[in-house]
Amino acid sequence: MTGRDGYAEFYQHTYPRLCGQLYAYLGDATEAEDVVQEAFLRAWRDWRKISTYDQPAAWVHRVAWNLATSRLRRVVTAARHVRRHRHETVVPPVGPEHVALVAALRTLPETLRRAIVLHYIADRSVADIAAEMGAPRGTVLSWLHRGRALLAAHLSDTRLEATRDA
Question: What is the dotted CATH code of the domain comprising 96-165?
Answer without folding.
Answer: 1.10.10.10
